Amino acid sequence: MSVVPDGEDAEGPAADRRPIAARDSGFARRLTAVLLKTAITPNQISLASVAFAALGAVALFWAVRWPVLYLAVLAAVQLRLLCNLLDGMVAVEGGRGSPVGALYNEFPDRVADTLLIVALGYAAGAGWLGWAGALAAALTAYVRVFGGSLGQAQDFRGPMAKQHRMALMSLACVLALGEAFLMTEHFVLYTTAWIILAGSLLTCFARTRAIVSRIRGETKP
Predict the structure, then answer these.
(1) For labeling, which of 106, 109, 185, 220 is most exposed (least CB within 10 Å)?
(2) What is the DSSP letter of 152?
């Protein structure tokens, strides 16, 4: 359901950039060209993704009462992902990377994820589930970056990497909007929060297992 795939890799070697087909799209390249005619920096685009996530989180919290806000959440998630795509393109393809770009590449993503997933938990009536899902999502990034710190190529595999989480939330917004006209329960949101938690933990396991496999392969005589 995600219209714009994510790109949480604004800077760094090509091996550490998530492969995103949208980078080669005419839309993305034209928009990047427009941004390069301005003074906007990749770091500012990364911060904008947090602002969109915050707006989406607020809308999601209140969407339980006013279901039309699910459409606002959907738009906010897609704009967040668009920022994630463009910050990397402006930084790498546009040559505007900065010495602190790696920090702006990672930290805003963790904040944006937390805002949206925690809001999902509260909207589903289970705040603890949102916090647990946000922690598990952050751990997926930790495992990825830890693998990179060992000299390995960063592993962006799923089944619940960032683009998968945001695609699932986008789909949940559409389904929750329909659910709101049929019942007062929030089964869609509750199920989505559980899938994000379980899928993120499985992603941590898969990435960790891959790191261990590479280490063992490197140490074989």
Answers:
(1) 220
(2) S
CB 73 within 8 Å of CB 52 = no
- CATH of segment(s) 22-219: 1.20.120.1760
Taking Cα atoms as reference points, which of 93, 58, 95 lies closest to residue 73?
A: 58
Alpha carbon distance 70, 67 (integer Å):
6
Region label for 84, one of left (φ > 0), alpha (ψ between -120 and 50) or beta (otherwise): alpha
Q: Report d(CA 42, CA 49) in Å as an integer.
A: 11
All structural domains of the chain with their residue ranges: 22-219
- Rounded CA separation 125/128 (Å): 9
CA distances from 9 to 40, 128, 131, 147 (A): 18, 29, 24, 15
Please write the tens of the pLDDT for every residue from 150-195. Answer: 999 989 999 999 999 999 999 999 999 999 988 878 899 999 999 9
Q: Which residue has the tokens 């805002």?
A: 115
pTM of the entire predicted model: 0.88
Sign of CA dihedral 53, 136, 193, 174: positive
Q: Return the structure tokens found at 96.
A: 């505007």
Closest CA to 109 of 149, 148, 63, 156: 156
If 0-12 CB within 10 Å is exposed, 13-18 middle and 19+ buried, where does residue 184 land?
Answer: exposed
> Rounded distance, CA 107 to CA 47, Å?
9
Rg (CA), the chain: 18
Q: How many Cα atoms are found within 13 Å in the side-chain-facing hemisphere of 104?
A: 21
